[in-house]
Inverse folding.
């Protein structure tokens, strides 16, 4: 039965660029409430009308999309090249109200067809190279326009179809026609398991577009039993800290990992875990211990571009290194008073400790009631399994994309990336920082700087340059 759902939140952007313009969009996605009939095709008749609402699980995804048109074939000079970023979040649906009825039957049905949706879908120009405008060629007049719609017919669950329409005006120089007018339409599919792909394997789409996974994270739509799912109003409370501090220890488990070829030596790292505990304090001065929650990690990735060779940051230098940062984000849970890592203190007998802050003889066994740590309006991230390597290594971000190492200088470049933990204080939260140092064989003065792992205003992880050299040489995509 065709889905009656409609795409919600879709907002077309203003055209960007001149004389070749690109029009993207943002905010598109599935509605947060639907019936099982709209999410699963076909649905069992006795369950088709069951109400479904957004649950507690979500994953973030991003893909680097490049539109490239050349003159006279695949090896000809570039006419138009546009770098874009496709971002979206996938989330799970849960039964709105378990209520009476055959719960085992519902569980069996939903286990066979786990329901997930897509939200916050956007397509926008994004400079992947160091400081470059995403339109790195302006040789033709035209327009590239993206749109989106919700549709069924892809397995058993709906998908979002991103359509594109491109038009190129003819290029005439001194009365000579260099390139004829060109019109093309095509589409991509965004699936609720995180996959983004060219629709129908279109030859034209695969010829002119290159899809490179950044934070792909394709999953199997993990299912939560109805009785265990968290529904709106049932999420954990937040504990807002004004001060955070981590133990001043060296990064745990880190392994330096070199990459070497004829033109570059890149020393990255992998196996890095963040602190297990934090000392936290709120506005009332109450001190607590926050513990990393090892359950339900959120895999993530970023693409990092190092660029060098030209003094002008707007030009693509002869050195470009693509690096992939992979990590798993965990939340911190704030323990009740008297609970510290490695032991539990009994509350005083006179009852000074609040009842709701203590849970029996061993409060560590009842973490379901512990609040999530927030700091300055954002959930504070815990990190595990952090790796920063040459793009595409071990199947990481950037696989299948452009060559990760490009060096046209004729001399070998060396780039070393070293992690370090900033312990934090009342003014700054603990954070992962990456110290980098680059040197060229023909340059006696190496350059260096630092990057910080942070969460932006939208709640997405990012790497923030902390100095002018880092801003000049690095661009983050994700």
């Amino acid at each position: 039965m065709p889905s009656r759902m409609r795409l919600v939140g879709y907002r077309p952007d203003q055209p960007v660029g001149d004389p070749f313009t690109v029009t993207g969009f943002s905010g598109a996605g599935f509605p947060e409430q639907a019936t099982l009939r709209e999410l699963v095709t076909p649905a069992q008749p006795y369950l088709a009308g069951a109400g479904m609402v957004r649950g507690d699980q979500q994953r973030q995804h991003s893909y680097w999309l490049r539109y490239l048109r050349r003159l006279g074939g695949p090896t000809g000079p570039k006419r138009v090249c546009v770098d874009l970023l496709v971002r979206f979040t996938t989330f799970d649906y849960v039964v709105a109200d378990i209520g009476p009825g055959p719960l085992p039957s519902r569980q069996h049905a939903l286990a066979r067809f786990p329901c997930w949706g897509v939200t916050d879908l956007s397509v926008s120009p994004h400079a992947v190279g160091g400081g470059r405008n995403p339109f790195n060629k302006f040789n033709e007049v035209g327009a590239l326009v993206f749109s989106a719609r919700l549709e069924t017919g892809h397995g058993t669950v709906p998908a979002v179809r991103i359509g594109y329409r491109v038009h190129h005006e003819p290029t005439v120089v001194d009365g000579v026609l260099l390139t004829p007018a060109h019109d093309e339409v095509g589409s991509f599919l965004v699936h609720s398991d995180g996959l983004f792909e060219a629709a129908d394997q279109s030859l034209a789409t695969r010829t002119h577009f290159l899809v490179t996974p950044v934070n792909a994270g394709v999953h199997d739509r993990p299912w939560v039993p109805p009785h265990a799912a968290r529904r709106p109003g049932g999420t954990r409370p937040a504990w807002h800290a004004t001060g955070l501090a981590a133990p001043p220890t060296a990064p745990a488990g880190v392994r330096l990992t070199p990459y070497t070829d004829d033109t570059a030596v890149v020393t990255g790292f992998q196996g890095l875990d963040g602190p297990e505990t934090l000392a936290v304090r709120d506005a009332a001065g109450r001190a607590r211990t926050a513990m990393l929650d090892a359950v339900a990690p959120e895999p993530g990735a970023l693409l990092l571009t190092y660029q060098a060779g030209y003094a002008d940051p707007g030009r693509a230098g002869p050195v470009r290194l693509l690096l992939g940062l992979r990590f798993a984000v965990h939340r911190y849970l704030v323990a009740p008073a008297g609970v510290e890592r490695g032991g539990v203190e009994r509350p005083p007998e006179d009852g000074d400790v609040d009842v709701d802050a203590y849970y029996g003889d061993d409060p560590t066994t009842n973490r379901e009631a512990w609040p999530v740590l927030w700091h300055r309006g954002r959930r504070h991230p815990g990190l595990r399994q952090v790796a920063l390597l040459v793009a595409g290594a071990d199947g990481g971000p950037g696989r299948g994309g452009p060559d990760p190492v490009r060096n046209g200088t004729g001399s070998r470049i060396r780039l070393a990336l070293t992690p370090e933990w900033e312990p934090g204080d009342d003014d700054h939260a603990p954070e992962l920082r990456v110290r980098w140092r680059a040197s060229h064989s023909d340059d006696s003065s190496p350059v260096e700087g630092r990057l910080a792992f942070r969460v932006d205003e939208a709640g997405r992880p990012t790497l923030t340059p902390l100095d002018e050299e880092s801003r000049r040489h690095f661009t983050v995509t994700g």
